[in-house]
Design a protein that fits this description.
Length: 436
C-alpha cells in the first residue's frame, strides 16, 4: 500500500522534475548527456549483467565524481576482502559516470534510472542486490522505498546534514523522515551530522558517526602518486615550489600579481599553475597575461625547460601528484564558488592556503584550526602569508606537520564502515520482503 508521501512524490514531484530536466536539457549540455545516457538503459544494463559472474551483489550509488572518491576506498576494501562479490556502481551525474565508466574494481557501472516507481522496480529486478550503499547525500526516494520493500539492507556512508538545511522545514521534514527511516544504517562524517539526522526522528536506522572515507582515499592516492615522476630533477632542484591547484580565473587574478611581486624577492620561486579547466582558450589567456611579466612554459613542453618561472599545466588528472613537489600549496575555487579538495595538498605535509569561499566543505576550517591551513581574503593577505611561509622554514615545517597530522588522524573511516558491512556480507541478509 502506498503511503501518502509516496503517492504525492510520484504524482507531483517526479513529473515536475522530469519536465525541468527536459527544459534544462535544451540549454545545458551536461543535462543533455545525462538524458542521452539513459536511452535504452535497461537493455544495456541487462546485457552487461549477463556477462558477470554469479554471487552476492552490492549496489553502490554516488551522485558524481566527488562522491565517488569517497566510494573508492570502500570498493577497494570490498574487492580485497570479498573478491567473489559483484559490485554494481551507479551515478546520477554524467560527469561522474563518464569519469568512472572504466573503473576496474567495479563489475558494472551505469546511470541510476530516473526515479519513478516503475523504473526502480525494473532496476532492482535486473541487479538483484543483497545490499545497497548510498554515498553522502544523493538519495532517490522511489529507489530507497523499493529496496526496503524487498528487504534489502540500506546504508548511507559519509552522510552529512547541514543544520540549516531546508529539509528541516515542517512538511519537508516529515517527507524526509519517511525516506531516512527506510534505511538500515546511517553512518555520518561527524557527531554534528549524526545529531542533525536525529532531528528527523528516525527510529529504524542505526545512527553512528564514523568519519569520512575521503581521508583514506587521499592517503592511498598520495602513496601511488609518490611513485610517479612527473618532473625532472632539473626543474625543481633548489627551488621553492608554489603549486596552485584547480584555479579559476578569479583565483588567478589574485595569485598572479602576488607571484610577480614575490619573484623579485625569491629568485628560486617556481609557480606550478594547474587550471581547473585547461581549455585552449584559457591556456592562451594565461600566456597572454604572463607575457612580459615572467617567463613561462607549458607542462607538455617540459623537455625543453630552461628555467622558466611558471609552469602552466595543460594536462588533467595529475594535480595530486604535483602537490608532492610543493613547498606551499594554494587550493583554488575559493575566490569563486567554493574551495576544492584541500586534503589532496595537506596529505603531503605542506602548508595549504585558500581564499574566503570555503564553507562548502568542513575540512578547510578544520585544517585551519589544526594549524595546517591559512585563509587569505585578498591579494595583500596572500602576499603576507605566502612570504612568511617562504621566508620561515621552521614555521613552514610546523604548518606542514600539522597538515599531514590532520589527514592521518582522521583516517580509518573505511575500516569502521566495513565493521558494519561485513556482518551482512557474511550472510546476515534478510531473505523476505518488507512492504511499506
Amino acid at each position: 500500500m502506498l503511503s501518502l508521501w509516496q503517492f504525492l512524490y510520484g504524482l507531483v514531484f517526479i513529473p515536475l522534475l522530469w519536465l525541468a530536466l527536459q527544459v534544462l536539457g535544451i540549454v545545458n549540455e551536461k543535462v543533455r548527456r545525462g538524458i542521452r545516457g539513459r536511452v535504452n538503459q535497461f537493455g544495456t544494463l541487462a546485457s552487461r549483467l549477463s556477462s558477470v559472474r554469479q554471487g552476492k551483489r552490492i549496489w553502490i550509488h554516488s551522485s558524481s565524481m566527488g562522491e565517488f572518491e569517497q566510494a573508492k576506498p570502500i570498493i577497494a576494501e570490498l574487492r580485497r576482502r570479498h573478491p567473489e562479490l559483484v559490485i554494481v556502481v551507479t551515478f546520477f551525474s554524467p560527469s561522474g559516470y563518464e569519469h568512472a565508466k572504466r573503473y576496474p574494481l567495479a563489475d558494472v557501472i551505469t546511470y541510476l534510472p530516473f526515479d519513478t516507481r516503475a523504473g526502480a522496480r525494473r532496476f532492482f529486478d535486473l541487479i538483484r542486490p543483497q545490499i545497497a550503499v548510498m554515498i553522502r547525500y544523493d538519495i532517490w526516494p522511489n529507489h530507497i522505498w523499493e529496496a526496503r520493500r524487498r528487504g534489502i539492507p540500506l546504508i548511507i556512508a559519509n552522510a552529512t546534514m547541514r543544520r540549516q538545511t531546508l529539509r528541516r522545514l515542517p512538511l519537508v521534514r516529515r517527507f524526509h523522515h519517511h525516506v531516512f527511516d527506510s534505511f538500515t544504517t546511517i553512518l555520518t562524517v561527524s557527531d554534528a551530522d549524526r545529531e542533525a539526522f536525529g532531528y528527523f526522528a528516525v527510529t529504524r536506522p542505526t545512527l553512528e558517526s564514523i568519519g569520512d572515507t575521503r581521508y583514506d582515499q587521499v592517503l592511498a592516492r598520495s602513496n601511488d602518486a609518490k611513485q610517479r615522476h612527473l618532473l625532472q630533477s632539473k626543474v625543481i632542484r633548489d627551488k621553492l615550489v608554489f603549486v596552485v591547484g584547480s584555479s579559476w580565473p578569479e583565483d588567478e587574478e589574485v595569485i598572479l600579481p602576488v607571484f610577480y611581486k614575490l619573484q623579485q624577492t625569491f629568485p628560486n620561486l617556481l609557480l606550478i599553475l594547474v587550471p581547473h579547466e585547461p581549455t585552449v582558450t584559457h591556456l592562451e589567456e594565461l600566456e597572454d597575461e604572463l607575457a612580459g611579466k615572467t617567463s613561462h612554459i607549458r607542462f607538455s613542453l617540459l623537455n625543453d625547460y630552461t628555467g622558466e618561472r611558471v609552469i602552466i599545466v595543460d594536462s588533467v588528472g595529475i594535480l595530486l601528484a604535483l602537490y608532492n613537489y610543493a613547498t606551499v600549496a594554494y587550493v583554488g575555487g575559493s575566490f569563486r564558488q567554493g574551495v576544492h579538495n584541500v586534503l589532496e595538498a595537506a596529505v603531503y605535509g605542506i602548508p595549504v592556503l585558500f581564499g574566503p569561499r570555503h564553507r562548502n566543505s568542513q575540512e578547510p576550517l578544520m585544517l585551519v584550526d589544526q594549524g595546517g591551513g591559512f585563509v587569505v581574503n585578498s591579494p595583500q593577505e596572500l602576499y603576507r602569508a605566502l612570504r612568511h611561509l617562504l621566508e620561515e622554514p621552521v614555521a613552514r615545517a610546523h604548518a606542514g606537520e600539522r597538515a599531514a597530522q590532520f589527514v592521518s588522524t582522521h583516517a580509518g573511516a573505511t575500516e569502521r564502515f566495513m565493521a558494519h558491512l561485513d556482518p551482512i556480507l557474511r550472510g546476515n541478509v534478510a531473505e523476505g520482503t518488507h512492504r511499506l
